[in-house]
Amino acid sequence: xxxxxDKISGKANELAGKAxxxxxxxxxxxxxxxxxxxxxxxxxxxxAKGNAKDAVKSVTDRL
Length: 63
Known about the structure:
63 residues; rod-shaped; mainly alpha
């Protein structure tokens, strides 16, 4: 995956995770809240991975 793809997927997972958490909270569904939290973390990791790829590319481009 490219850094842009990682960042887009990451943001999408973060937003979907937050939405699941909100629905889980509103309905009292603790399992859905937990799944949402896990998905949000996954998204943050993907976004960080994309940012790291950009940083590495920036360094290698300067060499």
